[in-house]
Every structure is written in structure tokens, then in C-alpha cells.
Input
Amino acid sequence: MRSSKLFFALLGSLLVVSRSFGQAPPVTSSADILLQLQKLKVLGSVLYVAAHPDDENTRLLAYLARDKKYRTGYLSLTRGDGGQNLIGDEQGVSLGLIRTQELLAARRIDGAEQFFSRAYDFGFSKSTEEALRIWKKDKILSDVVWIIRKFQPDVIITRFPPDARAGHGHHSASAALAIEAFRAAADPKMFPEQLQFVQPWQAKRIFWNTFNFGSVNTQSENQFKLDVGGFNPLVGKSYGEIAAESRSQHKSQGFGVPRQRGVSFEYFSLTGGDSVKTDLLEGVATDWSRTGNADLNPMVDKVIANYNPLQPSAIVPDLLTLRTAINERSSNAAKYWVQQKTKEIDALVKACLGMYAEAVTNQQVAVTGDSLQITINVVNRGPLPVTGVKIQYQDTSFVVAPTAVNNQLFTVVIRRPVFDDFMADQPYWLREQMDTGSFTVHTPLLIGYPQNPVRGLQVGYTIDRTYFTEELPLQYKFTDPVKGEIYQPVFAVPPIVVGSLPPVILNNLVPKHKQQIEVSYKSYMQKDAAKGTIRFEMIGNKGAKDKNLPVDMAFNKNQLQRYNISFDSLFSKEKPQQIYPYIEVKDSSKVKRYNNAMKLIQYDHIPTVHYFFPNNIRVINEEIRTVGKLIGYIPGSGDGIPEALKQMGFTVENLDEGALASVDLGRYDAIITGVRAYNVKESLNNNYDRLMRYVSEGGNLIVQYNTSSQIGPVKAKIGPYPFNISRTRVTDEKAAVTILDANSPILNYPNKIGPADFDGWIQERSIYHAAGWDSHYQPLFSMHDAGEDADSGSLIYTRYGKGFFTYTGIVFFRELPAGVPGAYRLLANLIALNQKKGF
Output
């Protein structure tokens, strides 16, 4: 019975956008109210489909949602996990969490709703076939069908075509899946297990929203087109301005764009369904006549006509009358829109009364098994009485105010046990082990959600004999002296969270470099009588076994404890491949194991995001030889290379703009630039001559990949001789690597590089290859994806004066944190390039 309630609660809640975690309660102006009133008469919907965050056409979404007032959704098949990160070093699922929140911020601006499938962004793909194979086509097709059946769009629009013009295998696959789902969603034989919750749905038509990306123009004047550049006087902005604000939320991708004003056409090519001449929803009744209830149209008109922006509460009686009339329509044809419009009316009633309710705490972390102080604030800022205001939390309900009226604030403080399962706050798509190309979600009704459904309190109240309920997320509220009032999500944690550093241990370095393991733990509860032991589960060639380290452990609330442990002394006889540190705690004759690490992601533009993962360390037992001691590192957009260099035994000094211009560069055995450094650091252009002088006097400059595009142009000279940066990449991490010069020092000193060094790589080989290079440069490797010509631009190098310069698109920033031995050995050789005499 309990799971049944959960299913239907989830099914219903997809019909309305709920408040996001970590988001201040929305402010609704009189202009906003009028826009929402006008929307009550519009019964049309459009679903936009593409592959990634930032693929969506925000101008079109803003036009559809705010001008046409259609219910508008964006289905991004992936969360953008495999992209690059311009603001930090998060990769994979961590980056996907950031980009999910950026999409939600964008939707709050343009007015559309956000959905996802279970597809994982595994990086750049060059074919539809590869994307569908890795994603498991039927799995993701079922997700697209599921969302179509729930959202019931009249029109589906894809951002891309299902062919090579899409420019990315994920792009073309998103179109191919949408086109197939357009028909499959209407077929009861397709994914029949969904039909216990939804019904088959046939959209009227499906379009491809053609584009002009400069180098690729797919638009033509014989296509259907719309001017979406209009001005909305209630918002005070044109749709081009709204679109720019929305798109600029994709900060991790560096997608800030200028506001656009004036006429702006979007073009559409029909890929299925009925053709059109004048309107995207041509042939669809988009008012209440579509449900056989045309008599509701004049009722909505009356509410709008009676609306006074200086006294919004005056139309609440009319809204309640309309709500009753709508809910008397119970036909299957009306059911979907009755539910949707009832939710819209409920939000309007609250906005017209100025109703405000929040549930906040003075701490962000809630410990399973503990209690939490919760403050509930409720105020009705309108003149109509709101009666019987009560709160439902877990299995308890209590009255906040018998009657709330005339701007009187009611506050209730309670203390209640917190959530009993901290994993319920884990992002739902990360709760289970994922497949290679997709997430595992065992609760089908969660599929499509951008984030976990709200887990908090429910406030209920009565207005003129009509009972309303509202879900209140439990939030942490505090005041920052600079930023002011801030809301952040509250999340549950286990009593003890464990961590360890580094993520990779190099167990066979030559010369020897002591490897230290830092095991840390934070106790979120006071455990005075508890006794603890640090234990290590080791996985190796001979299976698994445990090793323990007796230490004195204290469990003081909110106190972080760290223990530095010599890897060599503890594991001198073993060669484990994986180590899983955990804390074993004995408390009142009970022994509990704590092995969950927690990742916190904190940026000003998104709410705090967290997730749990098994605490583990990868051990590399292959020999890695190094030469040199001191590395100068010029950070780019963010990567984990400096930490890997320290593990290799190097001393790493960060070269910021001031240091780059003033320190003696000749001290460094090598200088390495971080990923995209030349895209984001103007100082590199200013210090070009200094860097080239460093190289010519015997230095070694290693430049990691940069992009050359509208989004990330390279504004500086990079090497001593000319070369270009292309968009060529090798996306198959197993692609064969051909060595072009077996005698190169890069392949021979101090490590002998061979085919085995290219085994076990992740996601891709190399990106943004060099092209058109001067004859002074020497390429070292040739590689290519299936069906393509070989390319030798993944690494080029040259002697310049007494030193060396290297440009490489090889993805060290992915391979080193993943513990790929060959990547460490190859980087060690690049660093040693100017150390061996005779070359």
C-alpha cells in the first residue's frame, strides 16, 4: 500500500514544477500573476528534445512558454557528465550534478520544465550507432516514450537531425530516438508495462528545429518559420533577452551570451505527422474546447477581466469558482488538463493572497537517528481569511494557526526525528551501480525527474471551504554578511562519513617516493563511549582480505579527524589493486561499519549538491620512473594534474599571473599548462616571450589541450613555431595507437613506452588535436576512430634552442585521476624530455 501511494504521488507531481532544493521561495509579482491567469485558457504543450545541457534553444523555449503560454518541456537525454568543466575540476557524475542544477536555473528563467532520461554522457561520440549501442537503445527509447506519455505534448521538436549534420553521435541519436518515440508512444504494444500508470499518446507532429551554426547552415526559406524575437511587456524583456539570461546559466561550459533584441526567426522541418502553414500547433484546439468544455473559456475570461494588479486578492473568489467548475469535468479527455490547471489555480490563489510558507532549520546536515529543530513560518498577506493552517510532517500533524489574515506572521518551532535513511537523499540515479552507458533506476516513476522529489513537510489550509496543500522543502536558512539571506538544501548523512586521500597510490616509483594514505572521518553524532578501528579491505590478484590499524579514535560531534598512514609499512608484503578504507565502531556491544565517502559540490550559482560513494583507493603496481624534481603549473579551467604530479614525487608550484611574470622560470624542470589555460588566462599571451626564452635556455614547456571555437578562442601564441588547434579527437578509448618514431626520447626515457601503456584508458584518447603545424614540429602518435583517416596531431613536440616544447591533446586530465598506469609513465617521459643528454 505504501509503495502504491509513492507511485501515484510521483506520477501526479510530474504535472507541476516544484520548488527546487536550495532555492529561496519564489516571488510572484502582479505581472507574473496576469501571465499565469492568461495561461489558464491555454491547453497546448510542446516537448523539446536534445542530448545535453546547453543543447536546448532557450529563445524558442522562452517564446513557447511565455508568449504562446504552452506547457513547455525540455528533455535532455543526458546530464552532460562527459563534458569539459570551465569552472572546476569536477568530471563524470560530479559534473553531471552541476549541469543538472544549471539546467534547472535556466528553466526557472525561460519558463520551461526540465526532464532527463537515464542516458549517461560518455563523452564525444561520432556516430548515432555508437551512442545507441552504448546507451542500450531500447532502455533510453523507453524513457523517451515514458516522458511523452506523461507529458502528453501536442508537438515534439528536436534540436538536431538524425544524421551526421548533428555534429555529435549523441545529438543525432537524440533525434533518432525522438522520431521513433513519436510513433512508439501511441502504440500500446510498446513498453506495455508503462500503461498501469500512463496511457498511449500520439503527438500531432514532430519537427526538427533547423539551425545556422555558421559553418553548418541547415535553414532554408521553404521551411516553416516563426518570429520568436518579440517583446513581452509584462516581463519587460524580449524573448532574446530572456533566452540569453537562461543560456548564461550554463556557467560550467562558459556559455555566457549577450542579450538579443529585435526580429529573430526560428525554422522548422517536419519529420513526422501533419504539415503546417501558420502555426506549430495548427489543427490542435488549445483552449477548453479540446476537452469538450468550451463553457470554461468565458469563465477564465471573466477572471482575467476582473483582475486588478493593485488588489490581486479580489479575484480569489472567482478563481475558487473556476477551480470547482474545472474539477467537475471528469472525462478522460479532460483529466490531464484538469489536473494541470488545478495546480496552476492553486499556485495563483496562493500568489494572489501573498501566502508565504517555509520550513527551515539552523543546520544543513541531518543525522539519521537524531532529531532536528524545524521552524515553520506562515503568513497570509492578503485580506481574505485562511483557516485551519496545519503542518503534516512524517506521521504527525499539528495546527500552526487557526486563522491567518492581515499580514500576521505565525511561527511554530518543532523538534522531530530526521529521515531514517540517508541514501534517500542520494540523487536517485546514483543509488545503484550504473551500466556502462546509462544509470540504473529501479523505481520507474522516478525516471525523467531532474532531481529527487521534495522530501519535507506539507502545509494545508482552507480558503472559503476549499482545502489546499503545498509541499514545503526542508531548507537550511542563514544570513551571509555579504550575500544576505541564503537557502540551501538540508540532507541526511550517516553518523560517520569516511574519506581517504589520495585516490591513486603509485606503489612502484623509481626513485622511491614515500606514499602516504590519509584516512579521515567526521562524526556527526557524539559517541563518547564508542571504540573504533580503521580497517582496510584489500582487493588483489589473490582475492579480498582485511587489514586493521588499531588507533585511538574519538567521536566528537562535527569534528574531523585525520590519520596519516605509511602505505609502505602497512602494505609492505601485499600488492593490492584496490583498497577500501572503512571505520569499524563498537558502541554498546554493537559493531557497525562505516565506509561511505561524501562529495560536496559548492558553487555560488547553484545549491550545494552532495552524493555518497564507496571510499576507495586505486593502487598502481606497475613501475613508473621519474626524472626531475620541480614543476611549475599554470592552472587552466580546472583539473587534477597537480595532485597526480605530487604523487609522482614532484614538487609542484602554482604559477599565477604575478609569479609567471616575475619568478625565475629557469628553476623548473618543466612547466605544464592546465587544460584550456590559453582559453582562460590572458597572462599567457602577455608572457609568451618569457616562456619561449625559458624553453630556449633549456626549459621544457608542456601545453595540454586548448579549444579553438567561438566559445573558447585561443587568443595567444602558444608554441615557438606556428600550429593550429583543430576539433579533431579520438573518442574510442581503445583505439589503436601507432608509434611514428620509436626512437623518440618521449618513448624511451625514463620509461620504455609500449602498446600496454595504452590499455585501460577511459572515455577517450585525445581531443583538440594540433593541425597545420610547422615543419619544426614532430608528431609522435597516429590514431583514429573507426571509419576515419589516421590523425597524428594528438602530440607534437620540437626542440627550441636548448629546450623542448610539447602540445598534446592526450587526455591526461581524465586518465591520471582514473589511475591509468600508462598515462603516468607517458607524462613522466614528457617531463624528462630535457633531462637526458644526447637527444
Summary: DSSP finds 19 helices and 43 strands in the chain. Residues 51-285+436-454 form a domain with the Rossmann fold fold (CATH 3.40.50.10320).
